[in-house]
Design goal:
Layout (H helix, E strand, L loop, with lengths): L2 E4 L3 H8 L11 E4 L19 E7 L12 E6 L14 H4 L5 E6 L11 E3 L4 H9 L6 E6 L5 E7 L1
Antiparallel strand pairs: 1-8, 2-3, 3-4, 5-6, 5-7, 7-8
Organism: Devosia nitrariae
InterPro entries: DUF1203
Protein name: DUF1203 domain-containing protein
Length: 157
């Protein structure tokens, strides 16, 4: 199966950059990167040292509901290119030691029980493929196992 890896939608990233409130109803905070692990959830790259970035509460679901987790994410303060889903798993995840949480969601945007797992970087693609082979799974979210921050969305290609 071909997998598509998606960052935050461009329209939403642009809205936050223009001052839209986040999932907690707050204006995103502006900071300057020290270059030490500030991953942008739109381009799926890092915010370089000296560059401005936003910190905000993100809910990667269409509406509030009990399974719609909210968590902090980083976003380049200036426009950056959207990650191309056809490029596969972002390079920074291939070359990382950071474990990730993968969790499948149904068409109703609710967790599909039995799909949650913690994986090493070299297991991400294989495990996402297994989860997405289930007919009751519409997409997978990847989150940081250390901080539980939303990382990206994985769909069938």
């Amino acid at each position: 199966m071909t997998l598509r890896f998606l960052g935050m939608p461009s329209e939403l990233a642009a809205a936050y950059r223009d001052g839209a409130v986040d999932a907690n109803g707050q204006v995103p905070e502006l900071h300057i990167s020290d270059g030490k692990g500030v991953p942008c959830r739109h381009c799926l790259g890092y915010v370089s040292e000296g560059e401005a970035y936003l910190v905000l509460a993100h809910r990667p679901f269409p509406a509030p509901q009990p399974y719609a987790e909210i968590g902090p994410v980083f976003l380049h303060a200036e426009q950056c290119p959207a990650y191309d889903p056809a490029r596969g798993l972002p390079e920074r995840h291939r070359n990382s030691n950071d474990r990730q949480i993968l969790r499948g969601y149904g068409k109703d945007d609710r967790i599909v029980y039995g799909t949650g797992t913690v994986v090493q970087p070299d297991e991400i693609e294989g495990q996402a493929d297994l989860i997405l082979r289930r007919s009751d799974v519409a997409y997978v979210h990847m989150r940081s196992a250390a901080n539980n921050c939303f990382t990206l969305r994985i769909e069938r290609g």
